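Per-residue structure
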Amino acid sequence: MRKIWVLFVLLPLIGFLAACGSDAGANGEGDSKEITIGYFPNINHVAGMVAEEKDLYSETLPDGTTVNYQYFPDGSSFMTAIETGDIQGGLVGPGPAMNHFTSGAKINVVAAGSTGGTVIMARNGADIESPEDMVGKTFISPRVGCTHDVQFETLMKEEYGITSSRIDGEMKHVTGKPATYASMFEAGKVDVATVPEPWASSIEAEGNGTVLIDTPDVAYGETLPAAVFVTSQELVNDNPEMVENIVEAHKNATTFIQENPEEAKAIAIKKIKDITDQELSQEVIDNAWERIDFTYEVEEKHLQDFANSSYDLGFLEEKPDLTGLVDLSFVE
């Protein structure tokens, strides 16, 4: 009789635990009811802004899915969030994505976000008329080894033979948020900035600096994805349907930008103000837009070439092999 009573108590409990275990999170073990998408408040990431403002992820994900958004100041914090599962996907520069992949991170680039948009700005009064004048000067980038840093340092090394003091060269390097570069120019704290749009156009409009090297002349300026859409390999393997739905929304956002540029610009102005508390003028947005191509297409060769440059500059300890990083099955 006691055995029967024990089974009577345990069977409902076992059923309850099984039910709890069946409601999996976004790791692909079941249908997630909540996901988080990440991006930066940069013009290269307008697809993230449009997708949020137009609620495009809710259109492609299963009914009842809650979509959250998280904003990042740099690629390192974004990649950490991908690896820990705090976000399920989003836009980041190719530099952090490749650096983390070569360090063992289990991630996939499943689409691009945009190309172009990196500009090298010189502070007014810094006595810099050409890149050759960078000897002994200080430049700023968002992070050490980030996309914009590698683009600038590759150009300076290959074209002018000038390198950072990090590798016993002639330029001093500091880091900071792009939204602060105009004020740092005004205060005379840095001489040159390798800047993602719209902050280059903002510096131009405020009269604190001038273009030293424009987008087409920066290393990989028009071929390298300025932003890539990244998710975890675990999510790709365990829940490819979710990844397909996420990428489909991202593609829809990109198409919207291509077909509705003026509305997309208005969304970018609004979202950047919401996130950074800085309101950009129409002039700044229009100028920045001219330097960027919004696309979800990505070529692995361009990423590999860029990664080789990261290695040549000493940002990577071993020559990188990006085999397995890019998964184009979701954009084909």
Summary: Residues 33-115+224-330 form a domain with the D-Maltodextrin-Binding Protein; domain 2 fold (CATH 3.40.190.10).
